[in-house]
Design brief:
The chain has 11 helices and 19 strands. With 411 residues, it is of the alpha/beta class. Strands 11-6-1-2-3-19 form a 6-stranded mixed β-sheet, with helices on both faces. It has a 5-stranded mixed β-sheet with strand order 14-13-12-17-18, sandwiched between helices. A 4-stranded antiparallel β-sheet has the order 7-10-8-9. The two termini are 25 Å apart. The structure holds adenosine-5'-triphosphate (ATP) and magnesium ion.
């Protein structure tokens, strides 16, 4: 299959920095041709707290991906995580211009501009202004108003914004690692690209990417996002609680969590004992698996309650018929879906990225949803040519060139 474009994703997480190189074929298929995912340092809860360490983590990821692919990485789609990512919905209305009173691209752009003019403090950087739907002369629920005869056009948008300084620090690190930024993408929306189906997005669904430092949450209804937020709780909190509760090191706690941890108390045998290496007593001591599970369950319950609060506050009566899709490294915890179902009283499934080819060993794992989602985001942007998507992208780098290429295809 002929290669149409090469896209790059960079996801700098709290536990690992990922660089992926993917080729998009003419039919829209995505093949991974390079990857690097070294452990990261320099971030806390998804936010850069040490520039040098973060640059070095990104550089390592890039080196590995370049060596594997033989491709020189120039520009990338970059995820933005951290608890400073927030969203709001805003409407914009304009009178349809032009003598024939048909909705043009320009009318759509003007309406979106009005919606964007909502009061957002100057300390915030707008990442996305995504059109959710249009109202054309009072007729709601129009997905594509282009060419419709109308007097008044109204757009409902979902605006995702982030702390300006946090975004600048992240951008600085990526640029210092020698890579230009095609587009900054909110991490929850990138994860959604990788694991949610169109049907789920239409029905109403949430994706929760449970990472090491944070949980990225995005809620969808009628095909588009309506609430995007990052909750500052992740798998590292669970490990930390265990280390404190069991008086052991973070490494021992992490290993214990991955091998014997569960958040489903009902699945634990009451008499099951485990040996734990304690600080000052390397020979180890016996603890009940039920005690371990109790520590894990308490933190995971807190996380699911926070997810539940966000879902009830976000609107649509707190009802998401397709439930919650868990992904991210920490979604692999045994019993995560079971506890999620109990706390949220909704369908809950755990998902890994799918539908990509090439060098996918280890990548079809929940921990890579955000990075694969970034590539899919880029691929959709060049093939789908949705209104609004291109408008927010800088006119440089691979993406700028691809955009021009798409515009030539769809005049
Ligand atoms: N099998 C497993 N069971 C339970 N937890 C796991 C398992 N494998 C990985 N984890 C947890 O997943 C977390 C890492 O997830 P991930 O790689 O998605 O994080 P990240 O992207 O680096 O961080 P963030 O997105 O929060 O900045 C760690 O806390 C780790 O303990
Ligand atoms: Mg992550």
């Amino acid at each position: 299959m002929e290669r149409e474009a090469v896209l790059v994703a960079i996801d700098v997480g709290t536990s690992k920095a990922v660089a992926l190189i993917g080729e998009v074929t003419a039919s829209g298929a995505l093949n991974i041709i390079g990857k690097g995912a070294p452990p990261s340092s320099g971030l806390k809860k998804g936010i850069v707290i040490n520039i040098d360490q973060t640059v070095s983590s990104i550089s390592q990821a890039i080196d590995q991906a370049e060596r594997l692919s033989g491709y020189k990485l120039e520009s990338a789609f970059v995820s933005v995580g951290g608890n400073h990512v927030e969203s709001q919905n805003s409407r914009g209305a304009v009178a349809v211009s032009g003598p024939r009173k048909e909705v043009s691209r320009e009318d759509v752009a003007r309406a979106t501009e009005v919606a964007r003019a909502v009061n957002i403090p100057s300390s915030r950087e707008i990442l996305h202004v995504l059109p959710r739907g249009y109202t054309v002369d009072g007729q709601e629920g129009v997905k594509d108003p282009l060419g419709m005869s109308a007097v008044r056009l109204e757009v409902e948008t979902h605006i995702v914004h982030a702390s300006g300084t946090a975004v600048q620090n992240l951008s600085k690190c990526v640029q210092q690692a020698g890579v230009r930024i095609d587009e900054l993408v909110a991490a929850p929306l990138a994860a959604a690209e990788a694991v949610l189906s169109d049907t789920e997005k239409d029905l109403g669904v949430a994706v929760a990417d449970i990472g090491a430092g944070t949980t990225d949450l995005a809620l969808f209804m009628d095909g588009s996002p309506f609430h995007t937020v990052v909750i500052p709780i992740g798998g590292a909190n669970v490990t930390n609680d265990m280390a404190i509760g069991l008086k052991t090191s973070l490494q021992v706690a992490e290993d214990l969590k991955v091998r014997h941890g569960t958040s489903d108390l009902r699945s634990v045998q009451p008499d099951q004992m485990l040996t734990v290496e304690t600080i000052g007593d390397e020979a180890g001591r016996q603890i009940a698996q039920a005690d371990l599970a109790a520590i894990i369950e308490a933190r995971m319950r807190e996380l699911f309650e926070r997810i539940g609060d966000e879902i009830s506050m976000a609107g649509h009566g707190g009802v998401l018929p397709a439930g919650v899709v868990l992904t991210g490294g920490a979604a692999q915890l045994t019993g995560a879906a079971e506890l999620g179902r109990e706390v949220l009283q909704m369908p809950v499934r755990v998902a890994a990225p799918a539908g990509v080819g090439g060098l996918v060993d280890n990548l079809l794992n929940p921990a890579y949803s955000t990075s694969i989602g970034l590539l899919l985001w880029g691929a959709h942007a060049i093939i789908g040519a949705e209104p609004g998507r291109f408008e927010s992208a800088p006119a440089y780098g691979t993406f700028g060139r691809l955009r021009d290429w798409v515009r030539n295809l769809f005049p």
